[in-house]
Amino acid sequence: MKKLKIAVIPGDGIGREVIPEGIRVLEAAGSRQGVEFQWTEFGWSCETYHRTGHMMPEDGIDRLKGFDAVYLGAVGYPGVPDHISLWGLLIPIRRSFDQYVNLRPVRLFDGVPCPLAGKRPGDIDFFVVRENVEGEYSMIGGIQYEGTAHEVVSQTSMFTRHGTDRIIKYAFELANSRPARHLTSATKSNGIFHSMPYWDSRVQTMAADYPDVTVDQYHIDILTANFVRMPEHFDVVVGSNLFGDILSDLGPACTGTIAIAPSANINPEGKFPSMFEPVHGSAPDIAGQGIANPIGTIWAGAMMMQHLGYPDTHDTILQAIEAVLADGNCLTADMGGTAGTADIGQTIAAAVAG
Ligand code: GGG
Questions:
Q1: Which of 19, 110, 159, 341 has the greatest number of beta carbons closer than 10 A?
Q2: Is 125-254 the same fold as 1-102+275-354?
Q3: CATH 3.40.718.10: does it fit domain 1-102+275-354?
Q4: Which pLDDT score, from 0 to 100, does residue 162 have?
Q5: d(C-alpha 34, C-alpha 27), whole Å
Q6: Per-residue pLDDT tens for 94-151?
């Protein structure tokens, strides 16, 4: 029996509360389906930063090499500026391991109260494909004349042909594999003069290779409005790093809670470990209370199993999530219930065990 070697980075805040529940569910699924795990925990976090001046050790990336995957909770906590914590841990992992696809499913589940009137499970079921290693998330820029009346700050987005084409291709392939065969591209080519017309032209060029896929594009402002007005329109939505990030918080919010949303940071070529995390952050306002919803982390664990070649384990976990949500007796406060983090983990693990 193969033992999967998983690097675990619980990180900050509620990341430390939801990750143990993800592991609990994966262990339950593994026992049932003959998969063994070897978990190696790394305590890298804002606490590490306070102690050492760095979010992770200098050889942190090297230490993660050789694992089958990375399972991460959340990054960021008051006391460390957000750009320091993110660029000290999450972003270096994504970039060093060329995890250029950030795949984020958005789905309305039976049992979760939907804030959009009249929407039913099945009406909202799409993927956001976010470019994950370039675009607006860049280190290019700086500040000059700092502290003077002439202070000037610049920040440059970077879109390479290689990076743009490979994420758009991934999104086309995904759309082509789904019954609706519909791809939406997020743009802002009326206001952003260089990068977004370029993005649009690469989408249009690649569309010729996928004649069965219907393609539309929306400027990001009306696209966010349409997520709320007509979420059933969407099937696969591809966006740059920043646009994809925004859309993949808004999408799950339209399904009732962003806490159920998972995020797979994938290196599709399998050259490096991929990383799986919930979409949500460290939520300092509720950290330490045992009330965080662990479903985004548990679902991310299921996506990890799919990526590692265990689709049955993925399906078993997802079916257990569906059943527990539909039952409605074990929901955290964000879904209208009173259950705690561990209650949800235990209930889903029990459903997985059968
Ligand atoms: N679950 C990891 C986490 O803390 N996410 C919050 C966040 O702000 N992520 C930024 C990003 O995905 O780029």
A1: 19
A2: yes
A3: yes
A4: 98
A5: 10
A6: 999 999 999 999 999 999 999 999 999 999 999 999 999 999 999 999 999 999 999 9
Cα 150 to middle of ligand 1, angstroms: 33
Domain extents in the chain: 1-102+275-354, 125-254
- Please work out whether the CB of residue 55 comes within 6 Å of at least one atom of ligand 1: no
Among 97, 16, 84, residue whose Cα is nearest residue 55: 84
User: 206: CA distance to ligand 1 center in Å?
Assistant: 30
Distance (angstroms) between ligand 1 centre and the Cα of 203 equals: 26
Average pLDDT over residues 312-333: 97
| Relative orientation angle of helices 341-353 and 295-307, to the nearest 10 degrees | 40
C-beta 278 within 6 A of ligand 1: yes
Residue 176 tokens, joined: 């082509």
Strands 141-144 and 69-74: what pairing?
A: unpaired
Give residue 18 CA to ligand 1 midpoint distance, Å: 14
Identify the pLDDT of residue 354: 85
Q: What's the confidence (pLDDT) of residue 225? A: 98
Nearest CA to ligand 1 atom 1: 74
Query: Which of 46, 279, 293, 304 most suits a substitution to test ligand 1, by most atoms within 8 Å of the C-beta?
Result: 279
Q: Look at the domain 125-254 and name its fold.
A: Isopropylmalate Dehydrogenase (3.40.718)
How far apart are the CA of 154 and the centre of ligand 1, in A? 23
| Predicted ipTM > 0.90 | yes
Q: Which stretches within the chain are classed as H helix?
A: 15-33, 46-52, 60-64, 82-85, 91-96, 161-176, 195-207, 220-229, 241-254, 295-307, 311-327, 341-353
Q: Is the dihedral of CA 319, 36, 89, 283 positive or negative?
A: positive
Q: Taking residues 66-79, what's their average pLDDT?
A: 97
C-alpha–C-alpha distance, residues 220 and 21, integer Å = 35
pLDDT, tens digit, for every residue of 191-207?
Answer: 999 999 999 999 999 99
